[in-house]
Amino acid sequence: MSLSLTHRTIDAIWRIESAKIIAGLTRMTRDVGLAEDFAQDALLIALDRWPEIGIPDKPGAWLMTTAKRRAIDHMRRNKLRDQKYVEIAQSMDMYTIEDSDLALDGDIGDDLLRLIYMTCHPVLSQDARVALTLRLLCGLTTEEIARSFLVAESTIAQRIVRAKRTLSAEGVPFEVPSAEERQDRLSTVLEVIYLMFNEGYSATAGEHWFRPILCQEAVRLGRMIAEISPMEPEVHGLVALMEIQSSRFKTRVNTKGEPILLMDQNRGKWDQLLTRRGLAALDRSRKIGRQLGPYSLQAAIAACHAQAVTAAETDWVRIAALYEALSRVAPSPIVELNRAVAISMAFGPAFGLQLVDELNAEPALQGYHLLPSVRGDLLVKLGRAEEARMEFERAASMTRNERERSVLLKRAAECEGGER
Questions:
Q1: pLDDT per position as a tens digit, 266-315
Q2: Count of structural domains within the chain
Q3: 78 and 8 inside one domain
Q4: pLDDT per residue over 199-235, tens digit each?
Q5: Where is each RNA polymerase sigma factor 70 region 4 type domain found (predicted)?
Q6: Residue 305 CA to chain centroid, in angstroms?
Q7: DSSP state of 417
Q8: How many angstroms separate the CA atoms of 319 and 293, rounded?
Q9: Looking at the structure, do residues 81 and 161 belong to the same domain, yes or no?
């Protein structure tokens, strides 16, 4: 295996395993900043050693073992300064490669839930909570988080550093809080799980169109939140959204790993069990009796797609109405862009293009690749091929996902030849 391929493989492994490793180390050290440092140390050691010795059969356990040894060494060096850390270290058995299945699949799952509540503590600002949790649970770089929120990378880096310092200084516990405290943190927890799922569903960067394991972790966390907060409609709404979206996984890429867009997917291969679970969760959200919130509204939109036997049978008028409702409860430029797509499907591309053109001056969408991508699609439908080609090329230059770039360049090439 070449050095570059080995490094790409290590990066993929890290994105899958890092949240579990950091959660386990946080349980051990009670300091999320130290936990990330030790996990990063293990990653650096892997980058140095694995190209020579080969990738272990159980790389996650190898990383956990290495990181834990670093943590225990640190505790021993600071014995006089902090006897508590020594006692914690001495009371825990070392992880080994042989017991890796227990190490990674035992109570680590609960640790992820504790970690998300810890990083969503109200001692942090809303922006800091989200940035830190995406960093630790999703393994996103500061650059990727910055692109997701359309802000400067330095701003995100500062938020994360300050957040870790604050958690340590305030002694925020590593635990699932009481019911009252959970309620105070619920909106941020749901937002982070939602963003975690979205990053898995459409990867910001890299060679893969999506990261299903990240989606699965988000769904699992959502289900756990639903069990401990059964009367919160938005919890069920978020679970419904993720379940329905997950039902499409098998049809989102072809055998070469190339993306298949929603309208071109084989709906007969959508996972009906996940669809039914999602629709049932949406029904639970509605029966609680409150006005539908942003997650429930998005789940209702996903349900419209799930219940259409063919793409042609999609109820785009209802979807446009649901986006209108969503724009009122959770207004954002991205919601408006999605609403423009729905309106174009319901009433014609000219109407959609008019709305998209109004978004061109929106500061938050500058550098957002889906804006020119959507505009290119609408221009194709209007027979303005040369303009569409330029939009697809512009979108391709903005995205950092290799699969998405390939799709956009292919669409640009299909527009060659001028107006239709």
A1: 999 999 999 999 999 999 999 998 889 999 999 999 999 999 999 999 99
A2: 3
A3: yes
A4: 888 766 555 557 777 788 889 889 988 988 899 999 9
A5: 116-167
A6: 21
A7: T
A8: 15
A9: no
